[in-house]
Amino acid sequence: MKKNTLLEVKNLTKLYTSGYVRTVEVIGAKKVSFDIKKGEIFCLVGESGSGKTTVGNIILRLIKPSSGKVLLNGKNLFSYDKLAYWRKVQAVFQDPYSSFNFFYNADKPLNDAFDLLENSPSKDERKKIIRSTLETIGMNPDEILGRYPHQLSGGQMQRLLIARSLIIHPNLLVADELTSMIDASTRVAVLKELLRLKKNEKMSVLFITHDLAQAYFIGDRIAIMRKGEIVERGPVERVIFNPKHPYTKELVASVPPLHEKWEL
Ligand code: ADP
Ligand code: MG
After folding, report:
1. Which atom of ligand 1 is nearest to the CA of 48?
2. Which among 33, 111, 177, 221 has the fewest CB atoms less than 10 Å away?
3. Model pTM score
4. What domain range includes position 95?
5. 257 has a pLDDT exceeding 70
6. What pLDDT score does 10 carry?
7. Using CA atoms, how far apart are residues 186 and 15, in angstroms rounded to an integer?
8. Domain annotation covers residue 264
């Protein structure tokens, strides 16, 4: 393993069985291998059903692979205590609504984040950290804290969840279709947030999306998935401007004209 490698995915295969009367096997992922460097945004791109979430969920330890393995810092993910692993690998989910309990105010997921930490700060310290974290991601704590989820927009919830992962400060953030629920203007802010996390916190991100343009904006390297397999991979610029695989060419051709790459 190279010194700057954070995560290695080796030959991951996931077969789902489905059906009641007659069971059929569905390929979720097939011999998927890649690695993510420290402080890198690695993108997994492909159409719906190509196996992106399957791979993400295996990395998050939410489902077990049929074969293959995932190594974090050179150690098999199952050799970690579950909580210790989730301190290092966190998710921001596609649907922010599913991460909130509508009976509690929006502070709860932030407060709960401290329970994952080894040395949990005092109540007063927690408050301070929550306020400063919200400010870090450009939110006004007074506008957010104490509100109930139904009083927040999808974009605000998504950013709250990013704030939550900031408190936990994982090595790897798995962002699965992170921006699919939010409007275009907030999307830019949220994507820039990921860039900032990478730059300032040296966090790695597994950015899962069906949208090649978003991958181009924020990604360092990219892997293109189709029917459970990676068909092409490489630095984002190379793959997008000089695609080799016919499927990648097809994907690139279907994207509206790309803009300049962002700078912070
Ligand atoms: P993506 O995230 O790229 O849309 P998924 O990983 O969700 O793709 O799905 C990959 C394939 O696995 C699809 O064919 C999907 O229908 C199938 N699949 C996903 N989850 C399950 C499940 N729990 N049971 C059966 N099949 C599943
Ligand atoms: Mg998915």
Report:
1. 4
2. 33
3. 0.90
4. 5-253
5. no
6. 98
7. 36
8. no
